[in-house]
Amino acid sequence: MKYIFVGNRANVLKKMIDLKCEIVQVFSVENSYLEKELEALNIPSKTIKSKKELVEDIINTEFDCLVSNGCPYILPISKIKKKDQLFINIH
């Protein structure tokens, strides 16, 4: 299963890495704890600059499951979801 991670917190992402999830893209909130943690761990990510850009990037990425943990935007799931994709929001 291919995953996208979106957010501002690192704990869920770290657990996904520990579980050896295939993470194809990480989107981090600018100046967030997650962004700083990713830099320290040398994990590549893309900084979220706007909702529009994030939605476009999600649409253009092949994945099975998106995990959101601290994403500042409500995503238009019904407009962007492709068949059999799963979207999980963790607070």
Give a summary of the structure in a few sentences.
It contains 4 helices and 5 strands. With 91 residues, it is α/β, with parallel strands linked by helices.
Helix/strand layout:
Blueprint: E1 2-7, H1 11-18, E2 22-29, H2 33-41, E3 46-48, H3 51-59, E4 65-69, H4 77-80, E5 86-90
Parallel strand pairs: 1-2, 1-4, 2-3, 4-5
Our estimate of the beta-strand percent is 25-35%
Strands in their spatial order, largest beta sheet: 3-2-1-4-5
Largest sheet: 5 strands, parallel
Number of strands: 5
Quickly count the helices: 4
Helix proportion of residues, in percent?
25-40%
Q: What value does the Rg take, in angstroms? A: 12 Å
State the distance separating the first and last CA atoms: 22 Å
Unreliable stretches: none
Gross morphology is: globular
pLDDT averaged over residues: 94
- One letter per element, helices H and strands E, the order comes to EHEHEHEHE
Q: How would you classify the helix and strand content by structural class?
A: alpha/beta
Task: Please supply descriptive tags for the structure shown above.
91 residues; alpha/beta; globular; single chain
Please explain how this structure is put together.
This protein has 91 residues and is of the alpha/beta class. The chain is 33% helix and 30% strand. The chain has 4 helices and 5 strands, in the order βαβαβαβαβ. The chain has helices at residues 11-18, 33-41, 51-59, 77-80, and strands at residues 2-7, 22-29, 46-48, 65-69, 86-90. Strands 3-2-1-4-5 form a 5-stranded parallel beta sheet, sandwiched between helices. The longest helix is centred in the middle third of the chain and has 9 residues, at 33-41. The radius of gyration is 12 Å and the shape is globular. It starts with a strand and ends with a strand. The mean pLDDT is 94.
